[in-house]
Amino acid sequence: MTPDTLAKCTGAILRDAERFADPLSAAMALYAINTPRRQAAFLATVSIESAKLTATEENLYYKDSARLCRLYPRAFKTGDEAMPYTCNPKALGEKLYGKYWGRGLIQLTWEANYKRAAEALGRDYLTNPDLLKEPSDASLTAAWFWHDKGCNELADSADMAGVTRKVNGPALVHLSERETQYIRALAVLR
C-alpha distances in angstroms, 81 versus 9, 98, 167? Predict the structure, then answer.
């Protein structure tokens, strides 16, 4: 996939698309993300999860302790309890996920998922989770996760709600944006 095509499919600027074009192309080929529907659904998902190829790490920077309480009620009961984690993304990540917060183009989270990816891909993500922020590993883990969750089959039937559920759970986070990006990507790829 050319950087220009990737930029059009994800809404990324060309500089970011150039960084990811080869790694994403290789990862998609490895996991049979090889039809217009599969590619469009995958790239739409990657686009939303990575803020158009600009972020390979979950943004855990919050200024407002009350917002932290609303977003993470299991972790924080009061604003005072959340206050040490405001403006402190590393501490917040460790509080919420250990050291395995969202990284990669599909924001792999939790130690168990890092371990499964490490075993499947032969990479040491447990000792060095920051590997997932690099274009090659970010792309590879995204395609592996996509395949592991059975998203190709959902993409074959253009089921973006199903894909979103597999990636983000029942909340269907940003579903309308994913569907819009899917339509844009599919138009480019056809």
Answer: 42, 18, 30
The runs of H, that is alpha helices, within the chain are 3-10, 14-30, 36-49, 65-71, 79-82, 89-97, 111-121, 135-148, 151-156, 160-168, 175-189
Return the active site residues: 49
Q: How far apart are CA 88 and CA 85, in angstroms?
A: 5
Can you read off the two tokens belonging to residue 7? 């930029």
Mean pLDDT of 86-94: 95
What are the tens digits of pLDDT across the range 32-84? Answer: 999 999 999 999 999 999 999 999 999 999 999 999 999 999 999 999 999 99
CB atoms inside a 10 Å sphere around CB 96: 21
